[in-house]
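Milestone M4 deliverable, item 7.
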Amino acid sequence: MAGRTLYRKLVESHTVVTLDADNVLLYADLHIMNEYTSPQAFAGLAEHGRKVPAPGQQLAVVDHIIPTHAESPRVIQDPASALQARNLKRNCDLHGIPLFDTNDPLQGIEHVITPEHGMIRPGMVVLCGDSHTTTYGAFGALGFGIGTSEVEHVLATQTLVYRLARDMRIRVDGLLPAGATSKDLILHIISRISAQGARGYVVEFTGSAIHALSMEARMTLCNMTVEAGARGALIAPDATSVGYVLERAVDIDGPMAQAARTAWAQLVSDADAAFDAELVFDASVVEPYVTWGTSPDQAIPVSAAVPNPADAADAIARASAERALDYIGLTPGSQLQGLPVQRVFIGSCTNGRIEDLRAVANVVRGHKVAAGVRAMVVPGSGAVREQAEAEGIAALLREAGFEWRKPGCSMCLAMNDDVLAPGERCASTTNRNFEGRQGRAGRTHLMSPAMAAAAAITGCITDVRQLGLSR
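Output delivered:
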């Protein structure tokens, strides 16, 4: 019998029935919802008189449309957004689904709060109407985003008609050098393989560089793998991930914990498992990265010059690069270092965790936000916010001139009142730099939290390594 990949093991263990050679009916251990991808699904249930048979395996969060200003209680002023939040609460109350509502002290971004409360465990299948559900692959769980019609199907049946993906293994050996983070690593990888380089694949990351990463760094890596077109991302469970889960999953203790360790130890690709594609990278050559265009794969080391579209591989890539440079306001051969920014945003499901905020504090300590820069820090959850306040991070950032905000998706996307003005240039720790993503005609440069902090205190895109800090 041929060896199986970790991805195949996860799919097979959750297959209710095989539909054909390419599709299965997949069981979901956990289904997460937010306020903007669930309304039509609940409407469909009501139209057909259907119930939710497993409400305890659902979780709902208000995160995308919520304001993050410091006022208490928080009030969603936009009428359409307020209606979405009210409808989500009404539907959750009707079906008995747990909800992290607008003013819940533990409210936060869905992909931040679920791991921190021990809800994500190795071997699970986790679905959500959000593309960055790939985050959960950091735990050896298969997570991926689904559409609104699929949300309805999962609510009604706890299953999903699922088209099988191909297997890709990305090995990353070596160690990240000082100044480089997992955000830089994933931007490095995406820039090399393109925004379609993993299309149709579930990517398993392995290698010494991956195993050296913290859990929060692994979540950043898996979160952004979808930006290479991947349908999922996986890292086999190890002592780091198992320890993280057992520390937070308070329901797993005693003999159950030992049984869990034994079961999770089997969640690895077999030695003779065949992958459809394999790639190898060297972490030791990774530098701090910054995007120059309007796609996450349009990224370069901060020390490099903006590429010339004339050097693109084909006419389509050349046209894309030309459009991106026109939108972002750059010229071929120019330097990103020294480029002035008007806004800095630190947060999101990619980089809104406590480790990210510690990295920011390490850079900011002893400095002030540069004149003319508006810098915002939005914790990924109420728990992260509380911890940052307890550690003195919040006070340090406020003293430096940062806005210290309440949790939410915030300026990751223009679905709330945290948006860029036309023409504003932003150093951002988010996951996407598409045209208008952070506000109409806003210009976004993706980078790590440390790099964003460096931009805040210097007023321009700056190589954080020049500040003499390791992280």
